[in-house]
Recover the amino acids of this structure.
């Protein structure tokens, strides 16, 4: 076999300012370049390199690094530092993020900015250290106690993670809120070329931050208010802020959606698998595109709803038992069928696996469309008393009839459903 | 309500008593006879005398003293239960020129926040901690605390604390004094004017230790909870004298002076 | 066009290093690349592997259905990844430790005495660098020039003495991969 030496065309583009970086390290360096004043962490796989990078770099720059005694302490150190107006980041992986839930709630309530990176691993419990997306609910649906939301940014590549770190600090400070970066073990552990386009967001005037009551009245950063009227007012203000974030900060990316009949909706690592699956599906004649939410909260629901109206079906792919799919269904509101394919415990579906699911979904949607044409008009609905069998046709309020879930919905595809059946036995 | 705010002293040749500048006009919500008010006043006096008010960032606890920020005219952040030492660490590390004060109760410091207090002390954080030990969870209704005495009845030890069931009281200040990072640890009380004066001196020393930069400083103050204990204010003070002090001896446990943090031996507490 | 290779073997055989060198070579060539290791407790002495995906466009899926190439440095790796090489792909087997073959007439299977060749180059621990050289020599993914620059970049920074051995081991492997040397037991084809 002869070996071709490098062509000149290849070499021509070689000298872009790119470096090969591990995801964890790139996120850490991006935070440093974004002007992060303080980092607090605790070792946990698969994000330990992030902590290690900070341990080396932050003291070099005269900034704050503390390896805390626990994730509980780490998030509360961030709370203290953040309350002084410092630009603060913490990072961990799933079990450690659970420990940080308390602090996140306090910081959301006290309106203290912080960027929190979750390099997700398989759960529940100690689970595994392999990549997973099973913390979507945790990040998107609140995390700690109380009525609050946090912006959640989901990078699908290391370069994007670098961009989103700076953006996360901007959001955190603009809205005085914790912001999540939701990555996973793949992104943390992988190396990819990273374009050196670090950004340092501008500093805001922090007229709320604690610096010592020198020549001005004392300031208090807190979440407590025992008067219900006051606390409701505070909550309403928070909700107004969340609504503004939801209105202004949605981000998503699309691929080959213009003529698509089907879309795969996926984020992060699952979206990368989906991207390859889309290309492969196209080459096999399926008109499929990719819809990739970058902000998981606020979820790009209006955009997805508009898209769904022109699609024959949506396949949601996640490294979970199906979490984001709930938000997809809420956004789609029945405009088209929504199927799901997920792997758990550190497993990642392969592109061929996704294409296979897509093909069977396509076939099923086709059959359903033909069946639909033959369906009789629905009979007038009548309200039945609560059946109490847990599968009832009446909801908890005993009011509106609820369609029973169609059992043929591909909640888990192929091998998974088989495996579930085996487990069930 | 309990701490009577004395009127400002009339112009006279010698002021012997006046409201500290750092103590607000707000009436406290503490129960009649509660020691928190006295302790707040001592803090306000000491910080005022040392000129630290404008430099201070304080950490408010969870518990009865959660409203400390309403009574002390300082920049305050509220910490989750037990986490004040971690919160204070975060402030300390990014604001090296500020004075960092934290205020914790016994459930806060010696139960839920044990890890945080031990490690803040172990790191020798330049933080001054005020630790109010009244042997009870006052705010939640008088439940047993880690510091509750053996045999003491609380709402969660209705027949009295039994070692076989609930273990023994923790002398956590002595424990912390073992750590090389702890530069100063002392225990005072507020049961009479004399002990209030001594406790004030301890608080002052604990503040100076932070200014000297030698490490972590903690003053435990044996205080009362007349309502939680089911005693009158005076009875509660007598109870401290008769029962609590023998279990938690008063005095300076360690003062490493101006020596650096991390001496060669493990400590001399 | 994405092409993928897995380097697999024992921890300590330098597999993650070889994969990183390939990734950096691809970067030198202006290509897109993705490197992902197996991670966790097994990295301390058990089995170790890393996958490298090279392409002209940003890399999509981090997992592949079939590898275009596999480097199996021990028997468990051969057994695990031999069957996962795509038809027409390349399988490099460390003949110093493995006598078995993948029994895949549909792939290009190279058996290389990596330990002996690495020893010849000056350091018999550089088994994975020999295999890397063979991979680069056999396939036109990354140029030899770029690989040399990559090795200089990674190794030369810290240890200039080690660099000479790495470059020599790479050259030996490269020659084997190009068919210029005969220490190859072609198991099939």
């Amino acid at each position: 076999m002869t070996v071709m030496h490098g062509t000149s065309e290849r070499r021509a583009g070689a000298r872009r300012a790119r470096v090969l970086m591990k995801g964890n390290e790139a996120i850490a360096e991006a935070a440093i370049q974004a002007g992060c004043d303080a980092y607090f962490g605790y070792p946990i796989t698969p994000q330990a390199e992030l902590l290690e990078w900070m341990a080396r770099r932050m003291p070099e720059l005269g900034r704050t690094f503390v390896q805390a005694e626990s994730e509980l302490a780490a998030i509360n150190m961030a709370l203290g530092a953040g309350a002084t107006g410092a630009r603060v980041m913490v990072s961990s992986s799933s079990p450690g993020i659970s420990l940080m839930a308390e602090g996140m709630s306090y910081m959301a309530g006290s309106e203290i900015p912080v960027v929190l990176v979750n390099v997700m691993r398989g759960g529940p419990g100690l689970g595994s250290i392999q990549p997973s997306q099973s913390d979507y609910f945790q990040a998107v649906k609140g995390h700690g106690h109380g009525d609050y939301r946090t912006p959640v940014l989901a990078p699908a590549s290391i370069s994007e993670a670098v961009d989103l770190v700076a953006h996360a600090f901007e959001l955190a400070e603009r809205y005085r809120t914790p912001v999540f970066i939701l990555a996973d073990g793949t992104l943390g552990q992988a190396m990819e070329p990273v374009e050196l386009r670090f950004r340092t967001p501008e500093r805001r005037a922090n007229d709320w931050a604690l610096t010592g009551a020198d020549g001005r009245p004392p300031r208090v950063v807190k979440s407590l208010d025992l008067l219900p009227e006051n606390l409701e007012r505070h909550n309403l203000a928070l909700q107004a802020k969340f609504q503004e974030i939801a209105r202004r900060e949605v981000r998503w990316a699309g691929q080959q959606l213009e003529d698509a009949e089907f879309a795969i909706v996926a984020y992060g690592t699952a979206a990368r698998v989906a991207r390859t699956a889309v290309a492969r599906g196209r080459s096999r004649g399926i008109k499929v595109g990719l819809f990739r939410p970058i902000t998981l909260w606020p979820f790009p629901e209006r955009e997805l709803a508009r898209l769904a109206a022109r699609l024959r079906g949506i396949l949601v792919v996640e490294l979970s038992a199906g979490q984001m799919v709930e938000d997809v269904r809420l956004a789609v509101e029945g405009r088209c069928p929504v199927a799901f394919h997920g792997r758990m415990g550190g497993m990642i579906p392969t592109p061929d696996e996704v294409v296979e699911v897509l093909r069977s979904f396509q076939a099923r949607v086709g059959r359903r469309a033909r069946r639909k044409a033959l369906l009789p008009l629905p009979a007038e609905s009548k309200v039945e008393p609560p059946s109490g069998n847990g599968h009832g046709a009446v909801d908890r309020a005993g009011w509106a009839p609820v369609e029973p879930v169609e059992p043929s919905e591909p909640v888990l595809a192929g091998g998974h459903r088989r495996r579930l059946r085996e487990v069930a036995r | 309500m309990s701490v009577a705010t004395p009127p400002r002293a009339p112009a006279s040749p010698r002021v012997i008593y006046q409201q500290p500048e750092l103590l607000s006009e707000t009436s406290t919500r503490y129960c009649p006879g509660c020691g928190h008010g006295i302790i707040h006043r001592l803090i306000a006096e000491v910080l005022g005398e040392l000129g630290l008010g404008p430099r201070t960032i304080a950490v408010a606890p969870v518990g009865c003293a959660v409203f400390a920020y309403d009574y002390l005219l300082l920049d305050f952040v509220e910490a989750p239960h037990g986490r004040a030492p971690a919160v204070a660490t975060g402030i300390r590390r990014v604001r090296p020129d500020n004075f960092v004060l934290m205020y914790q109760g016994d459930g806060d410091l010696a139960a839920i926040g044990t890890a945080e207090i031990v490690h803040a002390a172990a790191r020798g954080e330049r933080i001054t901690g005020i630790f109010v030990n009244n042997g009870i969870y006052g705010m939640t209704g008088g439940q047993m605390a880690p510091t509750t005495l053996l045999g003491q009845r609380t709402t969660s030890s209705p027949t009295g604390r039994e070692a076989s069931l609930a273990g023994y009281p923790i002398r956590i200040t002595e424990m912390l004094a073992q750590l090389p990072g702890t530069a100063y640890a002392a225990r005072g009380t507020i049961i009479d004017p004399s002990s209030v004066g001594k406790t004030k001196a301890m608080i002052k020393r604990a503040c100076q230790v932070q200014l000297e930069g030698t490490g972590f400083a903690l003053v435990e103050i044996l205080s009362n909870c007349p309502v939680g204990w089911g005693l009158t204010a005076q009875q509660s003070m007598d109870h401290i004298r008769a029962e609590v002090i023998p279990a938690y001896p008063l005095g300076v446990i360690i003062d490493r002076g101006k020596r650096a943090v991390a001496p060669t031996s493990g400590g001399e507490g | 066009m994405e092409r993928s290779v897995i380097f697999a073997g024992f921890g300590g055989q330098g597999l993650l290093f070889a994969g990183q060198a390939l990734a950096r070579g691809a970067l030198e060539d202006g290509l897109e690349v993705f490197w992902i290791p197996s991670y966790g407790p097994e990295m301390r002495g058990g089995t170790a592997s890393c996958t490298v995906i090279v392409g002209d466009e940003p890399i999509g899926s981090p997992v592949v259905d079939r590898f275009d190439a596999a480097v199996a440095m021990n028997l468990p790796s051969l057994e695990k990844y031999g069957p996962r090489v795509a038809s027409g792909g390349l399988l490099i087997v460390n003949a110093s430790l493995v006598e078995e073959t993948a029994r895949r007439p549909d792939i290009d299977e190279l058996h290389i005495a990596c330990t002996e060749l690495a020893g010849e180059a000056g350091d018999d621990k550089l088994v994975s660098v020999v295999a890397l050289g063979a991979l680069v020599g056999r396939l036109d993914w990354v140029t030899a020039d770029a690989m040399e620059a990559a090795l200089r970049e990674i190794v030369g920074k810290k240890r200039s003495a080690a660099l000479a051995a790495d470059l020599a081991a790479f050259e030996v492997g490269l020659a084997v991969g190009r068919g210029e040397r005969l220490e190859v037991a072609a198991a099939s084809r």
Notes: The domain at 36-255 of chain B is CATH 3.40.50.970 (Rossmann fold). Chains B and C do not touch (no CB pair under 8 Å). Chain B has a mean pLDDT of 92. Strands of chain B lie at 56-60, 75-78, 99-105, 128-133, 136-137, 143-144, 182-189, 216-222, 251-255.
